């Protein structure tokens, strides 16, 4: 059977000149269990040594509902202060626009300060990819675009992205931007398949931005499937994984990467070995039949 093309070992982030790895490493759990600077540094090294250059965090990471806002950025910043050479090895991405206890704020009164605060916590002069974390319904996209363009002009941000935006919200923001969006960050996994048929990935290909998939193993549900649907998807992934000598998570990452939109899975593990194993996905090969078998299991129905 004809195999789908292998994913590239590196790619450009959207239409930018920023080269990224085919995976990203996410840090929403970086501060869990009181992780020290040395412990955080070991995870950063694990990602970089595995060839993962895109490191993704957010100002809300570390917030527990009462305190901790900015803690993940601050911890990464301490790692970078201790080892300044690490900054040159990574493409640094963060997100903002959520202000506890209010849900979302991308007004001109808040967002510029949030960008500056991220820069201070991360101890850097420039953020490679800055993403609006969730859309603020009360902010006009032209106002948001103006803030982002000002930050790009000031050299604070190199590329722009969004996270958890609808297609219409992406179109609206993109309309007011002079700098094209380089990335979106939706939830995509073999258990979260809406984007394959609702036009999200088609929009990414049309506008030329890179989809960064958060929760690519279904928030851990693929590791311990409970529902019949989850078990069916895990079974199909296991069949392919066993044939190619990899684990189920690796097969899940590879399945996403086989899509022509160039999906970049964000590896959320805080375990060095699990971070490192993701690169095995680059050696996997999919036939259309096997790829669609996973999709059919996720849909719970045959293709129309």
Order of strands, main sheet, comes to 3-4-5-8-9-10-11-12
Total number of domains: 1
CATH superfamily: NADP-dependent oxidoreductase domain
Number of helical segments with 4 or more residues: 10
Question: Key features?
Answer:
304 residues, alpha/beta, TIM Barrel, 8-stranded parallel β-barrel, 10 helices, 12 strands, 37% helix, NAD(P)_OxRdtase_dom_sf, oxidoreductase activity, Aldo/keto reductase, NADP_OxRdtase_dom
What report would you give on this structure?
With 304 residues, the chain is α/β, with parallel strands linked by helices. The protein has one domain (11-222, 263-268): NADP-dependent oxidoreductase domain (TIM Barrel, Alpha-Beta Barrel), CATH 3.20.20. It has helices spanning 37-49, 71-82, 111-122, 141-153, 167-176, 200-207, 228-244, 248-257, 272-277, 288-299, and strands at 11-12, 19-20, 24-26, 54-56, 91-96, 98-99, 102-104, 127-132, 157-163, 181-185, 210-213, 264-267. Strands 3-4-5-8-9-10-11-12 form an 8-stranded parallel β-barrel, surrounded by 4 helices. Strands 1-2 form a two-stranded antiparallel sheet. It is globular. The mean pLDDT is 97.
List the helices and strands and how they pair.
Elements: E1 11-12, E2 19-20, E3 24-26, H1 37-49, E4 54-56, H2 71-82, E5 91-96, E6 98-99, E7 102-104, H3 111-122, E8 127-132, H4 141-153, E9 157-163, H5 167-176, E10 181-185, H6 200-207, E11 210-213, H7 228-244, H8 248-257, E12 264-267, H9 272-277, H10 288-299
Parallel strand pairs: 3-4, 3-12, 4-5, 5-8, 8-9, 9-10, 10-11, 11-12
Antiparallel strand pairs: 1-2, 6-7
Helix pairs in contact: 1-2, 2-3, 4-5, 7-8, 7-10
């Amino acid at each position: 059977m004809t195999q789908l093309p292998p994913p590239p070992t590196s790619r450009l982030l959207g239409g930018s000149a920023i080269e990224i790895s085919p995976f990203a490493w996410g840090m929403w759990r970086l501060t869990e269990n009181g992780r020290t600077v040395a412990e955080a540094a070991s995870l950063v090294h694990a990602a970089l040594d595995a060839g993962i250059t895109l490191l993704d965090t957010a100002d809300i990471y570390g917030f527990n509902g009462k305190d901790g806002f900015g803690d993940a950025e601050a911890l990464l910043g301490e790692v970078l202060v201790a080892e300044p050479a690490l900054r040159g090895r990574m493409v640094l991405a963060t997100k903002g626009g959520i202000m506890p206890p209010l849900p979302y704020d991308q007004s001109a009164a808040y967002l510029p300060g949030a960008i500056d605060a991220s820069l201070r916590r991360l101890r850097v002069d420039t953020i490679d990819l800055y993403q609006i974390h969730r859309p603020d319904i009360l902010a006009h996209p032209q106002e948001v675009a103006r803030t982002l363009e000002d930050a790009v002009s000031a050299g604070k941000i190199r590329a722009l992205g969004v996270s958890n935006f609808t297609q219409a919200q992406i179109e609206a923001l993109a309309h007011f931007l002079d700098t094209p969006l380089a990335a979106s960050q939706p939830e995509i996994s073999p258990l979260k398949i809406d984007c394959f048929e609702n036009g999200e990935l088609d929009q990414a290909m049309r506008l030329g931005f890179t989809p960064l998939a958060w929760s690519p193993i279904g928030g851990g549900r693929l590791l311990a499937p409970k529902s019949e649907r989850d078990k069916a998807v895990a079974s199909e992934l296991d069949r392919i994984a066993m044939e190619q000598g990899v684990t189920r998570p690796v097969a899940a990452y590879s399945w996403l990467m086989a899509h022509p939109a160039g999906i970049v899975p964000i590896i959320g593990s805080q375990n060095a070995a699990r971070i490192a194993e993701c690169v095995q996905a680059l050696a996997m090969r999919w036939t259309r039949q096997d790829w669609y078998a996973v999709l059919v299991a996720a849909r719970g129905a045959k293709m129309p």
